[in-house]
TrEMBL record:
InterPro entries in alphabetical order: 3'-5'_exonuclease_dom, Exo_C, HRDC-like_sf, HRDC_dom, HRDC_dom_sf, RNase_D-like, RNaseH-like_sf, RNaseH_sf
Annotated protein name in UniProt: Ribonuclease D
Superkingdom of origin organism: Bacteria
EC number: 3.1.13.5
Record-annotated HRDC domain positions: 113-192
Organism: Corynebacterium lowii
SMART domains, alphabetized: HRDC
Keyword entries, A-Z: Hydrolase
Amino acid sequence: MRPSRLFDTELAARLAGYERVNLAAMTEELCGYSLAKGHGAEDWSTTPLPQEWLAYAALDVELLLELAEALAEILDQQGKLTWLEQDCAALIADTTPPRHHWTALKGLGRLRSGEQRARARSLWQARDDLAKRIDVAPGTLLSDKVLLAIAAEPPARPGHLWTIPGYSRRFDEHSRTWFEAVKQARALDPAEDTAPAPSPVPPHSRWPHLAPRAAALLSEAKEAYRLCAENLGTPAENILRPKIMRAAIWEFAEEENIHDSADLRAFLSRRGARPWQVEISAAVLGPLLWGFPRV
């Protein structure tokens, strides 16, 4: 299901400059109502959902339209309503599916051997298949942290899974599934152990050693966006995603593929920056690039 219209109240609150942008804080600030607390921390992958949870969820969004109207008026007064409209339109148009692959496991890089990675892959697949079969979120069956711990040092018997830090009674309901996945990992083809292609832009923490010029430019750009954010009353990361900013700087300083404002605007647009972000960044980042000495 894809909506034809969208108004993201959290994003609107960020653009408007509010520090606390969660639903409860915003409805209290702009609508004068305090939301009831009760089931927010429940496991919402439970099926079927209890009736009292459904009532809680319905009441939780009852004020959304009123909140959206209030935020739209504020953004209009600030001259930022078109910013939100462009952001929401881009969200609707984005058909990229969320990344769903075992190599997306957070912390996978700590597993060095092929055997460990094969076990992680087998456990991830077993967990994913089970989650689809019983219609629950995979993380409720076995957390990523515990999955990787089992893959790193698998116990000798299912009953020994309790020696894994973080292993719980909830995870133990399917202990034989996890143990069987560990055994099946021996039959996996190592050639299929393919991680996504690394980004052409290295982690910025390494820039001072790998690319001092780019690191210096990045430092100046961060300060420029900080000042811009203060002036506009909008967080710097909403003015331009840090990942896009770093990519533009790397493309200019190291790849030398950005030569003028037209190049910069085209690059930012290709990377997903909205038209309003491109305009502001051309005025904030552009002068830094053109004034930076080339080698």
